Amino acid sequence: MTVISKTLEQTAEFWKGFYANRSLRHTPSPFAQWCLENHLPENSKILELGCGNGRDSFAFLHQNLPVIALDACPVAIADNLEHQKSLNLQLQGHFSTLDFADLDTLETKNINTLYSRFVLHAIPEILEDKILDYATVQLPKEGRMLHEFRTIRDPLMQQGEALSKTERLTTHYRRFLNPDVFREKLAARGWKELFFVESDTLAVFGNENPVVARIVAEKK
Ligand SMILES: C[S@@+](CC[C@H](N)C(=O)[O-])C[C@H]1O[C@@H](n2cnc3c(N)ncnc32)[C@H](O)[C@@H]1O
């Protein structure tokens, strides 16, 4: 087993513990709120990758936007399903456990929007490429991708064990993205950039003020 695959296995255990121990309902992320205000038209049908505890999925559902929400962590998905049931509303949410390594097996005929928050930096680049290829094949013309992720300018990159130039291990695996490289990947796959920013102050949480990028792109 390679160091990275062992690290990813440990990280999967980290997420199980994280979602089992934390109080699971949180307010929507600032990114989700910003997307709702600016970049998610009424006809959006969302595929959310790496939904975690559903904080953003439920925010979309409460705005009557249908959501297919996926995460590799069965503990988080089970809780989201239970929460959806307990709300007893007509929410169009479909929560499922899926590892992005198996994304090819996912059949989604009706989505036009792919959303991820704090996920691209939680996975190796090979899975990022898989996601971009999947979106490029599956989303219709004018479909959208919306992503928020930590960049190589995030101070957290100075912490933990260095697994490579951009990958770090603390309590779990992270890979800090160079947003210019990511933007080139989108352009090369035929995506038009609608919005880009890289900054701190966008995802403040307690004492943490990470440097993140936000990207909204449209399929040409
Ligand atoms: C930092 S959390 C972000 C969760 C949520 N989007 C949020 O903003 O609170 C990263 C999420 O990615 C999920 N994840 C990591 N690797 C994955 C993989 N290979 N396939 C599917 N989900 C994965 C984890 O289980 C975790 O829920």
Give structural notes.
The protein is α/β, with parallel strands linked by helices and 220 residues long. The protein has helices at 3-21, 30-38, 55-62, 74-87, 125-138, 179-188; strands at 46-49, 67-71, 93-97, 113-117, 144-150, 161-162, 167-169, 173-175, 191-199, 212-219. It has one domain: Rossmann fold (3-Layer(aba) Sandwich). It has six helices and ten strands. The strands form two sheets. Strands 3-2-1-4-5-10-9 form a seven-stranded mixed β-sheet, with helices on both faces. Strands 6-7-8 form a three-stranded antiparallel β-sheet. The protein is globular. The model has no long low-confidence stretch (mean pLDDT 94). Bound molecules: S-adenosylmethionine. Residues 15, 29, 50-52, 55, 71-73, 76, 99-100, 117-119, 122-123, 127 line the site of S-adenosylmethionine.
